[in-house]
Amino acid sequence: MNLRNTADQAFVRETNLSLVLRLIHNQSPVSRAQMAGITGLNKSTVSSLVDELIERRLVHETGSNSGGAGRPATLLEINPQAGSIIGVELGVDFVSVAVTDVLGNILWRKREDARQEDGQEKMINQTLQIVKEAITAGKRKNYHFMGIGLSTPGTVDVDKGLLIFAPNLHWHNVPFVRIFSEQAKLKVFVENDANAAAIAEHLFGTARQCQDFLFVFAGVGIGGGLFLNGKLYRGRNGYAGEIGHSPIMAEPSQTVCHCGNRGCWETYANQYSIIQRIQARLEVRRSSIIPKLMADQNAPLSIPLIKQAADAGDREAIDSFTEAGHAMGQGFAGLINIFNPERIILGGPLSMAGEYLLPAIKETVALHALPEINKQVEILLSPFGPDASLIGAIAIVVDDLLAHPAKVERR
Ligand SMILES: [Zn+2]
Read out DSSP for 310-349? Predict the structure, then answer.
């Protein structure tokens, strides 16, 4: 046998191993016979692949199906104890770190406010510090780490492990993978926050069976993860999905976006826009419980505080969310017309006010999206809410595990 054939066979084996592992992840609990039926592989090949996955402790047997005729078949599922994963979400004004199992169940977490004004080095060091805490906490519980996923706003070169440019952080060319792998001695992956959240939605969330959906990540900025034809769409250079910077208006008087332009969609619909709407209302002395809440809690104006006011029935808070929801809906309508998705999922910090935003988003979409496309779209909130991109950071590690089960590391 020549080397070429051996290499081909190894490649086929790894591809099939990944195929079976993905299937178990997606359809579990599932039997060997069912997988043979779905994949078209013969039963003995499936059994041999499953044996290897069990040996690698990625999969385990879980009872049997008793329904139907014939002998009950043993069912398989992902072994939640396969290993632990560290997810890092780098926000613009916070840092969040979680340790989860391979199914995304949170075992440990910590979130700290961060100040982008303090500079890149300080914010990265703060993040590294929490990652080291996570590792120490995990080691104490005997966790074995498979890797670190990091989600960040901005354009990311996934292959080089590099943040190219984050307008909201004013950061350029940050070699995240090198920095974090040197410090943590683990495999590190980096991805744009909205892309990561879209992958999480496909692996663990509301889009498991969905081939065409858009994830809208809303917070300080608005980012999009475009999941098309069953795959994340990255565009020519890997930067697709910067939906927040779509120019929807270009009047000279409008707020300057962090990217330097005017008229970007996110400046009308991000969290600052909601805070500005409230400030404008308070300046004209509208009656609201917000100033009292701020005084009582000795806290600045924030989305959680505005949400609290809205929950108490405060008109100004509710109306501000509704206005922002209408502005969001304009962008959603454009996305629906362009991509004809099955679903649009809203997540990220602003989704905590989803109950106020969603009705307004849907109303505007109904007005602006083409009716025959719109009637097929479901607009919903991410089950991970404000944690969408944190779970996304976990998901990019799991996605690599599903793609390369034979290369799994545990440290
Ligand atoms: Zn912009």
Answer: HHTT-HHHHHHHHHHHHHHHHHHHHHHHHH--SEEEEESG
Q: How far is the CA of 260 from the centre of ligand 1 (A)?
A: 6
Residue boundaries of the structural domains of the chain: 3-78, 83-200+389-407, 206-382
What separation in Å is there between the alpha carbon of 385 and the centre of ligand 1? 24
For residue 70, report the distance from its CA to the centre of ligand 1, in Å: 61
| Ligand 1: centre distance to CA 263 (Å) | 7
Look at the pTM and tell me if it is higher than 0.85: yes
Q: Which chain residues have CB less than 5 Å from ligand 1, an ion?
A: 245, 257, 259, 261, 264
Best CA proximity match to 360, nearest among 333, 393, 387, 392: 333
120 C-alpha vs ligand 1 centroid, how far in Å? 21
Q: What is the largest CA-CA distance in the chain?
A: 84
Q: Ligand 1: distance of its center to the CA of 351 in Å?
A: 21
The residue assigned the tokens 């999206």 is 369
Q: Ligand 1 centroid vs 271 CA: distance in angstroms? A: 14
The CATH number of the structural domain formed by 206-382 is 3.30.420.40
Residue ranges with strand state E in 210-349: 213-218, 222-228, 231-232, 343-347
Same fold, 83-200+389-407 and 206-382: yes
Distance from the alpha carbon of residue 262 to the mean position of ligand 1, in angstroms = 7
How far is the C-alpha of 213 from the C-alpha of 192, rounded, in Å? 17
**Whole-angstrom Cα distance, residue 411 to residue 409?**
7
For residue 243, report the distance from its CA to the centre of ligand 1, in Å.
9
Whole-angstrom distance, CA of residue 154 vs CA of residue 151: 9
Q: Report the separation in Å between the CA atom of 350 and the middle of ligand 1, taken as the mean of its atom positions.
A: 18
Kindly indicate whether the domain formed by 83-200+389-407 is annotated with CATH number 3.90.1720.10. Answer: no
Instruction: Please tell me the distance between residue 219's alpha carbon and the centre of ligand 1 in angstroms.
Output: 14
Question: Which CATH architecture fits 3-78?
Answer: Orthogonal Bundle (1.10)
Per-residue pLDDT of the chain (411 residues; tens, 9 = 90+): 577 788 888 889 999 999 999 999 999 899 999 999 999 999 999 999 999 999 999 999 998 877 666 678 899 999 999 999 999 999 988 999 999 999 999 999 999 999 888 999 999 999 999 999 999 999 999 999 999 999 999 999 999 999 999 988 899 999 999 999 999 999 999 999 999 999 999 999 999 989 999 999 999 999 999 999 999 999 998 889 999 999 887 565 578 888 888 889 999 999 999 999 999 999 998 899 999 999 999 999 999 999 999 999 999 999 999 999 999 999 999 999 999 999 999 999 999 999 999 999 999 999 999 988 888 899 999 999 999 999 999 999 999 999 999 999 999
